[in-house]
Structures are given as structure tokens and as C-alpha cells.
């Protein structure tokens, strides 16, 4: 009877130690899983921040491109205006020379007739 009682006590103690080890292992596993979850959450936040940063950079680049295109369009308008002004001056000078030539022709025709 005493041997059975000692065996039962030893078995109970062994089971208690095993239960304690299992509980500690379970707690460690839960801590590790929480830590892993935290790491994943931080990684996701980093990726979101990197994406937002990239989106902001692209938006700024698009704004710079738009400004550059507007600047180029303005330069093109200036060149076109200068070309129009030169053409108008040239055509005006040509018309003036034609008029002077015609007037000279008329003047010379009237002297001889």
C-alpha cells in the first residue's frame, strides 16, 4: 500500500512537473506568436509608409513635369510670336516697296505721256 501510495505521489509529481513545463512552453509559444504578430504589423506599417513616400515622390515628379511642359509651351509661344512679328515686318516692308515701286511707275508713266 505504501509502495502504491509512493508510486501514485511520484506519478502525480511527474504529471505536475510535465503540466508546468507544458504551461511554460505554451506561454513561450504565445509570447513568440505575439512577437511575430507585432513584427508583421511593423513590417506592414513600414511598407505602407514606403508606398506613401513613393506616391508623394511620383506626385511631385508629375507636378515638375507639368511645370516643365508649361514652361516649354510658353517658350514655344514666344518663338511663334517672334516669328509672326518678323513675318509681319517683312510683309510690311515688301508691301511698302511694292507701293513705292508702283508709285514710281505711275510717276514715270505720267511724265512720258
Automatic annotation (TrEMBL):
A Pfam family reported for this protein in Swiss-Prot or TrEMBL: DUF5384
Biased composition (Basic and acidic residues): 16-36, 92-113
Domain of life, source organism: Bacteria
Signal peptide: none
Disordered: region residues: 1-36, 70-113
Biased composition (Low complexity): 1-13
Protein name: Uncharacterized protein
Amino acid at each position: 500500500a505504501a509502495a502504491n501510495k509512493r508510486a501514485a505521489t511520484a506519478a502525480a509529481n511527474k504529471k505536475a512537473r510535465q503540466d508546468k513545463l507544458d504551461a511554460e512552453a505554451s506561454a513561450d509559444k504565445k509570447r513568440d506568436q505575439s512577437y511575430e504578430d507585432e513584427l508583421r504589423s511593423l513590417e506592414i506599417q513600414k511598407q505602407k509608409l514606403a508606398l506613401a513616400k513613393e506616391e508623394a515622390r511620383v506626385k511631385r515628379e508629375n507636378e515638375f513635369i507639368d511645370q516643365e511642359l508649361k514652361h516649354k509651351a510658353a517658350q514655344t509661344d514666344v518663338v511663334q510670336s517672334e516669328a509672326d512679328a518678323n513675318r509681319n515686318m517683312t510683309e510690311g516692308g515688301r508691301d511698302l516697296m511694292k507701293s513705292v515701286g508702283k508709285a514710281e511707275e505711275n510717276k514715270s508713266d505720267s511724265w512720258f505721256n
